[in-house]
Amino acid sequence: MTADLSTTATTLLAHAPATTAPGTGDAAGSLVAADVPSVVQSIDWLAIAPPTLTALAALAVLVADLFLPAHRKRLLGYATLTALAAALAFLIPLRSGERSTFCVTTGAQACSYTADHFTVVIQALVLGGAFLTVLLSLDETRKLPAGEYWFLLLASASGAALLPASRDLATLVVALEVASLPAFALVGIKRGDRRSSEAALKFFLSSVVATAVMLLGVSFVYAATGTLHLTEIADRLDDVSPVLDTLAKTGVALTLVGFAFKTAAAPFHFWVPDTYVGAPLPIAAYLSVVGKAVGFSGLILVTVIAFPSYADVWGPALAVLAALTMTAGNVAALRQNATRSRSAVRLLAWSSVAQAGYLLVPIAAAAYSSDEQIGSTVAYALMYAVVNLGAFAVAALVARTHPGNRLSDYRGLYATRPLAALALGFFLLCLAGLPPGIIGLFAKVTVFSAAVDAGLGWLAVVMAVNVVIALYYYLQWTAILFRAPDGAPETAGPDTGSPAPAPPRRFRAPTPLTTAIVLTSAAGILLSGVPQAVLRFAAVSLF
């Protein structure tokens, strides 16, 4: 956590005594001590409990792994579930959204950690996403180093939970890297798998370059303003010296590049499909939801809180990025070959890129209207998190009997797993924005309204065209689920005396995986029945 050191030093020097006459040192010293404000920052332990508990649980799991025999490693997964559930429980007393800590004790009122409504909602999304990822992973870790896996997942989740509460650039960058660095290792954790290693390398190199560019931008912003606190940056950018204006604009632009990578915005999205395909399927699900939440949280904080004075710089840039991202994602998803290995995961990867474009729209709109537009991004992100994790959960179920995870492998899923097929069909319709996925429809309308209200009519048209394009591949995948399985007759024919085809092979789904599908399905149905539960965030200020 940072403080403005120059302000503190100036205050202390201003209060320091010049000379002390003999015999008056004690009295003068006590007077000075009474006048000098304390530079010791108080800590609100309840406010920082969710990320702190997650980080401590990561260390505990790593140490416990040293002492547990191989046949009891599964306990580490359940310990991880318990820790994430406890971290979620600590969000309940924070729902008032009025807590801050690590605040500057001298000069301006600025804090490095704030648990406002935006923080609580995003932390619930992040920790809930990590919880569901653990459910998807409990059976996967039999073939992976369990201790390292759970440690890395908890470490990444702790950074992701810290980021939305960060209110200075130093804490923001640290949280971003704490969330990202373990993710590199998780992508490449399948030892001896060439595809996994290649995916981790691409992810790492792309992220390192983006982080370097972002750090250069942060240094330019600090040079132009002399502070790292977001609220202070906003105040000082209002009257930045003309000599430093170009430096400040360059810093703003470079800082946005780093977060554009984390959100998988075009043209910084090329790492997504190969990374998702090479990573273990639960980690691909984690990156598609929690990884995006990290990127969008940081992007919202720096644009809306730190850089409102330069809305004329980042507003048009994000609008163009939104249009490019949704178009690139949907066009690439259309081109997926149903018989290609892992085509189902690739389609979900490109779909997540397109969804990132929709999520960017309200942020761009905030530059032209008000900060309340950010609520539309949060509402859409909550819907997307639930249904996308559900889609990955069904994909993990299918992968148990079809490791290739091709789109063609889903043909006739309704015959073998009717409930799983119905769940996946529901998730896909939510992503498409069609009934009965009411929450997907309303979330898209909310984002569309944000663009129209901000006067971005051209962006609303681009979004409408892309929604229509996406209908094709979402509905095509949904139709595959209910077709007759390969080798079975499409329609009943005359009795030829030939033996009846063998019934589709059934398999027993693991309990944790089934639980993940049930939870996401129930959440999706609940949100479709009561959409205002998340859409209300689009009508209020979260800061």
From TrEMBL:
InterPro entries: NADH-Q_OxRdtase_suN/2, ND/Mrp_TM. It catalyses: a quinone + NADH + 5 H(+)(in) = a quinol + NAD(+) + 4 H(+)(out). Its EC number is 7.1.1.-. Residues 166-469 form the NADH:quinone oxidoreductase/Mrp antiporter transmembrane domain. It is a multi-pass membrane protein. Pfam families: Proton_antipo_M. Keywords: Cell membrane, Membrane, NAD, Quinone, Translocase, Transmembrane, Transmembrane helix, Transport. The chain crosses the membrane at residues 43-68, 75-92, 118-137, 149-166, 172-189, 201-222, 251-272, 284-307, 313-335, 347-368, 380-399, 419-443, 455-475, 513-534. It is found in: Cell membrane; Endomembrane system; Membrane. The keyword Membrane applies. NDH-1 is composed of 14 different subunits. Subunits NuoA, H, J, K, L, M, N constitute the membrane sector of the complex. Belongs to the complex I subunit 2 family. NDH-1 shuttles electrons from NADH, via FMN and iron-sulfur (Fe-S) centers, to quinones in the respiratory chain. The immediate electron acceptor for the enzyme in this species is believed to be a menaquinone. Couples the redox reaction to proton translocation (for every two electrons transferred, four hydrogen ions are translocated across the cytoplasmic membrane), and thus conserves the redox energy in a proton gradient. This is NADH-quinone oxidoreductase subunit N. It comes from Streptomyces pakalii.
